[in-house]
Amino acid sequence: MLYWALVFLVVAIIAGALGFGGIAGTSAGIAQILFFIFLAFLVLSLLAGLFRRAR
């Protein structure tokens, strides 16, 4: 999932540099959403690992 967030971020940077504002904004928004979903899954995974070791 982090891979796709980075792909959309690169697409947004390239589109922004070429002047495609709508595509750049959409790609940046998608990258931001995917990044935050990745962070949520990371935190859940770390918490699950901590609770599993505590037993």
From TrEMBL:
It comes from the Bacteria. One of its GO terms (cellular component) is plasma membrane. Keywords: Cell membrane, Membrane, Transmembrane, Transmembrane helix. It is found in: Cell membrane. Signal peptide: none annotated. It is a single-pass membrane protein. The chain crosses the membrane at residues 29-51. Its main location: membrane. The keyword Transmembrane helix applies. HAMAP family: UPF0391. Belongs to the UPF0391 family. This is UPF0391 membrane protein SAMN04488498_103104.
